[in-house]
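Incident log, support desk, overnight shift.

02:14 A customer reports that sequence design results differ from what the structure should imply. Their input is reproduced verbatim below. On-call engineer (initials T.W.) acknowledged and began investigating.
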């Protein structure tokens, strides 16, 4: 293949790459933040996490040249060692080393800035409020890869057009030189040329590979998964409004591998006193009583409850619902319309509390699992909560603001590894780390600023994989 035949495909490929990466792009910034920054900086941009809230960070650096901000992002410790006043101030305040990103280009950093400022200002990716009943909050859509394919087709057409022009010019040059064997070029012949076909095959391979790898990486991940649960339980009400500690219900998180789902008896302990919800009246709380076999009319558990039929159970709780209906409507008898409402409410309760695998009303609530790691991954809640002293929100997000619980993190291997690389081990007043005398001595002497999880074996394969 001649140099001229190679020139156009290479030129088109270079131009194509330049188009994709030439200018700051907020979607590029989103991906960069998600893959590099989200482990330490809160995605709301307005709340602190391991690192500071990023809202307004460009204004805080505005009195310095923009190149200083670029240098801070690429290698914060390099700027600290040079004695830069802003870098020194931030490091003294947060006492944690930001992961260096030396390969970020200026355009990529500007893309990050666009995304951070857009989220902070509420002009990008503002999620719709989640609704009770299983509808998840709106999720900002990913970039459609067809956009890239469209650009590739446009560039391919441009390459063919330019190739055809060059072929025509070459033909007229030959004619002018008296070449009687010169053939009139055609568009079809240009499309069949080895250069065009080679570029087309390369483009198909490139984007086919991109799609395959991207989908393979996302395989099995359930970030933002928010299924409909049998009971409309609101963490925003319990953990947010009423400030109930996570470990009161999920007691296993502090002492075992599993965080455990609380039994209905745990719920009954509180709802003996609170028998009517602020949003759904008796309906959702009655589901708890039905599961546990607690009679709210008599304030005691029903004897031999597991031996009662669904019809017998229905009689008990429909009477309870009816009594509350009469109190609410300040009447002494149930009207036909009222009975219809009671029957409809009970039908919804039965639907929520039974399934193809559970025909009886009594027994455990069939919650839908959100967080599910592969069988070959070992994760211990107590190691992170009790030993590591991590807040539940580190992995599960702001649960206290979720009406409908969703999976906050990707729970991918890279996400865990980044956390281990960037998270400080809380050595102070923590008996679990007394044996690390060298690290304790270095911290006291000031030769070490912090100890990361990776420093104590947090990146060893066998820690998470048997």
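02:41 Re-run completed on a clean worker. Output:
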């Amino acid at each position: 293949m001649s140099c001229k035949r190679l020139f156009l495909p290479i030129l088109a490929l270079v131009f194509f790459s330049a188009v994709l990466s030439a200018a700051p792009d907020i979607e590029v910034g989103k991906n960069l933040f998600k893959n590099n920054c989200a482990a330490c900086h809160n995605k709301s941009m307005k709340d602190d996490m391991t690192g500071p809230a990023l809202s307004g960070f460009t204004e805080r650096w505005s009195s310095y040249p923009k190149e200083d901000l670029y240098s801070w992002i690429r290698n914060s410790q390099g700027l600290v060692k040079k004695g830069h006043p802003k870098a020194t101030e931030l490091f003294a305040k947060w006492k944690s080393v930001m992961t260096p990103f030396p390969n970020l280009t200026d355009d990529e950093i500007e893309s990050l800035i666009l995304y951070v400022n857009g989220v902070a200002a509420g002009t990008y990716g503002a999620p719709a409020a989640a609704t009770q009943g299983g509808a998840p909050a709106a999720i900002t859509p990913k970039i459609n890869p067809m956009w890239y394919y469209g650009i590739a087709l446009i560039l391919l057409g441009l390459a063919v057009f330019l190739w055809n022009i060059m072929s025509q010019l070459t033909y007229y040059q030959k004619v002018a030189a008296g070449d009687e064997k010169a053939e009139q070029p055609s568009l079809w012949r240009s499309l069949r040329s080895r250069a065009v076909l080679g570029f087309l095959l390369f483009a198909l391979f490139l984007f086919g590979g991109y799609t395959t790898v991207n989908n393979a990486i996302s395989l099995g991940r359930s970030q933002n998964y928010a299924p409909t649960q049998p009971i409309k339980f609101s963490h925003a009400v319990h953990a947010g409004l009423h400030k109930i500690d996570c470990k009161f219900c999920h007691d296993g998180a502090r002492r075992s591998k599993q965080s455990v789902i609380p039994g209905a008896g745990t719920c009954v302990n509180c709802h003996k006193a609170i028998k009517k919800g602020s949003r759904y009246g008796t309906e959702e709380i009655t589901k708890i009583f039905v599961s546990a076999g607690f009679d709210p009319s008599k304030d005691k558990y029903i004897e031999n409850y597991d031996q009662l039929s669904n019809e017998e159970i229905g009689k008990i709780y429909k009477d309870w619902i009816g009594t509350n209906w009469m109190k609410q409507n300040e009447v002494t008898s149930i009207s036909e319309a009222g009975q219809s409402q009671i029957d409809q409410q009970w039908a919804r309760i039965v639907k929520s509390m039974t399934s193809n695998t559970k025909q009886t009303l009594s027994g455990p609530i069939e919650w839908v699992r959100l967080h599910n790691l592969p069988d070959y991954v070992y994760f211990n809640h107590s190691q992170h909560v009790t030993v590591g002293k991590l807040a539940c929100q580190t992995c599960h997000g702001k649960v206290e603001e979720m009406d409908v619980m969703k999976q906050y993190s990707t729970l991918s291997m890279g996400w865990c590894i980044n956390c281990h690389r960037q998270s400080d081990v809380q050595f102070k007043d923590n008996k679990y780390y007394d044996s690390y005398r060298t690290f304790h001595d270095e911290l006291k002497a000031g030769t070490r600023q912090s100890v990361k999880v990776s420093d104590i074996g947090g990146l060893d394969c066998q820690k998470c994989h048997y």
